[in-house]
Specification:
- This protein has 93 residues and is an alpha+beta fold.
- Helix content is 27%, strand content 42%.
- The protein has helices at residues 30-38, 73-88, and strands at residues 3-12, 17-26, 42-47, 53-58, 63-69.
- The chain starts with a strand and ends in a 5-residue tail after the last helix.
C-alpha cells in the first residue's frame, strides 16, 4: 500500500512539551489531509497515562474530532477515519 507522509504535533508527558512528528497515512487520504491543512486545522496526539493515545483534529479555536485509541496501528487508522469523516461532513471545508 502506498503511503503519504504527514506531520502532527505530539504532546509529551509529563509537562506537555510539544514536538513535530511524522507518520504515514494511506495515499487515498492525501487530499483530505491537504484540505484539512488549508482549512486551518492540524492533528495533535497525546500519550495518556493509561497508555492510550488521544488523537485530535483541531484549529486554534476548536476541536472538530477527538478519539482515544490504543497505541500502535490504531493511531493511523483513527487519523484516516477522522479525516474522511470530517471532510465528508464538510466540517473542515
Amino acid at each position: 500500500m502506498e503511503t503519504y507522509k504527514i506531520t502532527a504535533t505530539q504532546i509529551l508527558l509529563p509537562y506537555g512539551k510539544r514536538c513535530t512528528v511524522y507518520g504515514p497515512i494511506c495515499l487515498e487520504r492525501e487530499a483530505d489531509y491537504t484540505a484539512m491543512l488549508e482549512a486551518g486545522f492540524g492533528i495533535e496526539m497525546e500519550m495518556l497515562t493509561s497508555g492510550e493515545v488521544s488523537v485530535t483534529i483541531s484549529s486554534e479555536h476548536e476541536d472538530v474530532d477527538i478519539r482515544v485509541v490504543s497505541n500502535g496501528p490504531s493511531v493511523r487508522a483513527a487519523i484516516e477515519s477522522m479525516l474522511e469523516a470530517r471532510l465528508r461532513e464538510g466540517v473542515m471545508a
